[in-house]
From TrEMBL:
Species classification: Bacteria, Bacillati, Actinomycetota, Actinomycetes, Kitasatosporales
GO annotation terms (biological process): lipid catabolic process
Organism of derivation: Streptomyces chattanoogensis
Listed InterPro entries: AB_hydrolase_fold
SUPFAM superfamilies given in the database record: alpha/beta-Hydrolases
Pfam families recorded: PAF-AH_p_II
Protein name: Acetylhydrolase
Signal sequence extent: 1-24
Cytoplasm as UniProt keyword: no
Taxonomy, superkingdom: Bacteria
Keyword presence, Signal: yes
Length: 417
């Protein structure tokens, strides 16, 4: 990637989007580790493991490769149709499926992620890729119609980084579609032995002005919104736009999931730009009944008319997304939300708090002093509040944890600007 010098304004815009720390003004954009990250001990006897899901159901997992033939890839048009990788999680019969847990990510995906995070010497890629999950490939699905939640990862991160939340929701009775968007992660494996890297990151980092950088990130969010509508088309067999070309229909490999999904109960959540994408997807697709933004700047803005009264949860770090913080998109778009809404911030949290990485890093003694919330609490807070939100708004189960502050979660502040 061409390394160029850029202004503080552009760096500030990228810092809101990239999960990587960004170099100071006047220097080249660089992927550098957080300051004073604690060193990890030897890993010889360590196997990383996702937190055990709390729901009553076993978990199945299946992988889909989807191609939207109505759209060219926005980052590499010569590649042809827009491609997506989707991990489907679902409640399953205990004891069914493969004897070994489903894999976490490929070793190459892990190596690319760790190298870009400057953690290649701290984490062997085999350690990360070998993370133990709780899902089983080819497990027999539980009969019935279940709510669907679509998840979208942070910019530059692959979908595996939201595995903990995916497993948690599936264990509670949700079908989960965890989406990887082509050319928007440091490395995602696709069929044919391909591992696609982050062309969109290069475009964002080469933006000459802050306005240009924000336009790139808005393009990411809007593109993901279109991706998600396509995924819903494929999974339900019903297109939002009956006149749109595509592959939805009986021939789609996703069509088999239609018998498991209640198309009247669909939600979306995402981390970072994936959270912004949840709002963008809701703005364009009324089938999505509820949404969650986990620590993501609203580069693609909520419409002035709101989201037609649909519920939305904003869950972020106290340092980055409290009222009065640098990211002004949260208070501005909060005012546009016209349905049930909550703005929650978490003390001692960082941008990564809401994904798998703090949970896994803690198991080998790696921590970031700038975000001292423990890995255990990071996972618990994300699981509890996102799960409660979808229980309340897709299943009609009142969850008091959403009513206000609780003694059990002293880190969480309810903001009412």
């Amino acid at each position: 990637m061409k390394r160029i010098r850029r202004s503080a304004a552009v760096l500030a815009a990228l810092a809101l989007a990239l999960p990587l720390p960004v170099a100071a003004a006047g220097t080249a954009v660089a992927a550098t580790p957080p300051a004073a990250v604690a060193a990890a001990p030897a890993h010889a006897a360590v196997r990383l493991e996702l937190s055990r899901p709390t729901g009553p159901y076993a978990i199945g997992r299946s992988t889909l490769h989807l191609a939207d033939t109505s759209r060219r890839d926005p980052w590499v048009p010569s590649a042809g149709a827009r491609e997506l990788m989707v991990s489907m999680y679902y409640p399953a019969h205990a004891g069914s499926g493969d004897s070994a847990p489903a894999p976490y990510m490929t070793t190459k995906e892990a190596r690319l992620l760790l190298e870009k995070q400057k953690l290649g010497r701290t984490f062997p890629p085999e350690l990360l890729s070998g993370t133990r999950t709780h899902a089983r490939t080819a497990a027999r699905p539980l009969a019935g119609k279940h709510p669907l939640v679509v998840l979208s990862p942070g910019f530059s991160l692959n979908r595996a980084t939201l595995s903990l939340l995916s497993e948690e929701l599936a264990s509670r009775g949700y079908v989960v579609a965890l989406v990887d968007h082509a050319y928007e992660s440091f490395g995602t494996a696709f069929p044919g032995g391909r591992t696609l890297t982050c062309v969109a990151c290069d475009v964002a980092e080469s933006a000459p002005t802050e306005e240009d950088a924000r336009k790139v990130m808005a393009k990411v969010a809007d593109g993901r919104a279109a991706d998600v509508s396509f995924v819903i088309d494929e999974l339900t067999g019903h297109r939002r736009d009956a006149g749109r070309a595509g592959t939805a229909g009986t021939a789609s490999p996703a069509r088999k999931f239609s018998r498991l999904i209640d198309a009247r109960r669909i939600g979306m959540a995402g981390h970072s730009i994936g959270g912004n994408s949840a709002a963008a997807a809701m703005a364009g697709d009324r089938r999505i009944r509820a949404g969650v933004n986990m620590d993501g700047t609203f580069f693609s803005r909520v419409p002035r008319s709101g989201l037609d009264g649909r519920p939305f949860l904003m869950l972020g770090s106290k340092a980055g997304h409290s009222p009065g913080s640098e990211d002004t998109s949260w208070p501005e778009d909060w005012r546009k939300l016209d349905g049930w809404k909550r703005w929650l911030t978490v003390a001692d949290a960082g941008h990564f708090t809401f994904i798998d990485l703090p949970v896994l890093a803690a198991q080998v003694g790696v921590s970031d002093p700038s975000a001292p919330l423990s890995g255990k609490r990071s996972g618990e807070i994300t699981r509890d509040y996102v799960g409660a939100f979808f229980d309340q708004h897709l299943r009609g189960i009142h969850r008091p944890v959403l009513d206000g502050p609780t003694a059990a979660n002293p880190e969480v502040t309810f903001n009412s600007p």
